[in-house]
Amino acid sequence: RAFIKVLGNLDPTVETVSWFGGDIFAVTAPDKPLVKLFGVEGMGVLRTEAQDDGSYRLFNRECAFYKDPFTGQFIDTWTNPFTQEEVKVVSIHNMTVNAEVAPVFKMDFDGKVQEIPFAPPWWIQEKIDTAMNMFEVHVAPPSPMSVEEWPRESAGPVNRISEMFHRSLSLSELQNDDLTSVDYTGVWTRIGPWLPWMLQGQAEGHILYRTFMTRPATIEKMPEPLLRQVSDKLGEEYFNAPPPESWGSENDSSFSVYMAENDPAPPRQ
User: Fold this and answer.
1) Per-residue pLDDT tens for 60-98?
2) Does the pLDDT at position 269 exceed 80?
3) How far apart are the C-alpha atoms of 213 and 105, rounded to whole Å?
4) Nearest to residue 5, comparing CAs of 93, 120, 106?
5) d(Cα 194, Cα 154) in Å, to the nearest integer?
6) What's the angle, vertex CA 91, arms to CA 137 and CA 196, rounded to 5?
7) What are 125-158's pLDDT values in tens digits?
8) What is the pLDDT of residue 157?
9) Whole-model pTM?
10) Scanning 86, 169, 194, 209, which has its CA 20 to 30 A from the CA of 182?
11) In sequence order, what are the beta bridge partners of 26?
12) Which DSSP string corresponds to the chain?
């Protein structure tokens, strides 16, 4: 219940807006330093529903755009520093990313439901009125993109993904039963395979996301450039959480969405 109060809102009629932004790095050979590839900035809209058995359903929609890591401008094309190839940048635009919070955290990853033990650890600093929460997801589902059909987009037969969410917030607000939600600041770290649009194929390595995150709570408090980008590129439906009837459908991901919207890239000349 405390986790839901931080992640979203205990009131099922309230949609909560979150923001994240930072940089993405390439992790290549063991003896090579990380390479900053591009920036990223995005948002999510979440609504929660308590169930009779004490579990919670999360209805989440998310999107993000990649940026020049030095100017901070959103980009539509990107030159791969490993291949020197200019490629089209594909935003994150996942209409449905739902999950269930119970004794286990259940979430669909590209058609395969993963069950993750749910026991988010809390660190408490009473003297400074601070509660800190770390929630982690570590999975390795089969990749929906076969190497045979998507030789330039697929990173391999398995998508090993780790996501770590660290949130800091007011302890007194968390313990206040008159509040249905609590604002936070934190860090989101993600380790995952090359993105399909990078056209890295099965090259050695992976990418590392390092971002800040916070909860502006309402659309009106989000950064204006990001709101314009969402409205112009994706549409204002991304300003709302998925509807109740989306429950039980497969979640979207950067891989499934790419496959639905693109054909395999031709062989490189």
Assistant:
1) 999 999 999 999 999 999 999 999 999 999 999 999 999
2) no
3) 21
4) 120
5) 8
6) 70
7) 999 999 999 999 999 999 999 999 999 999 999 9
8) 96
9) 0.95
10) 209
11) 35, 207
12) -HHHHHHS-SSTT--EEEEEEEEEEEE-STTS--EEEEEEEEEEEEEEEE-TTS-EEEEEEEEEEEE-TTT--B-SEEE-TTT--EEE---EEES---EEESSEEEEEETTEEEEEE----EEEEGGGTEEEEEEEEEE-PBPSS-TTT-TTT---SB--EEEEEEEEEEHHHHH-TT-S---EEEEEEEEEPPPGGG--TT-S-EEEEEEEEEEEESGGGS-HHHHHHHHHHT-GGGGSPPPGGGTTSPPP-HHHHHHHH-PPPPPP-
CA 155 – CA 80 distance, rounded (Å): 15
How many residues appear in the chain?
A: 269
Question: What span, in angstroms and rounded, lies between the C-alpha atoms of 92 and 171?
Answer: 33
Q: Are residues 176 and 193 in contact, defined by beta-carbon separation less than 8 angstroms? A: no
Token pair 């008159």 in the structure block, residue:
178
Q: Half-sphere exposure (CA, 13 Å, Cβ side) for 196?
A: 27
The pair of three-digit structure tokens given for residue 101, joined into one six-digit string: 């919070």
Rounded average pLDDT over 42-56: 96
Q: With bands split at pLDDT 50, 70 and 90, how would you rate the model's confidence at 17?
A: very high
User: Averaged over 20-29, what is the pLDDT?
Assistant: 97
Q: What are phi and psi of 251, to 5 degrees?
A: -75, 155
What pLDDT, in 10s, does the model give residues 159-193?
999 999 999 999 999 999 999 999 999 999 999 99
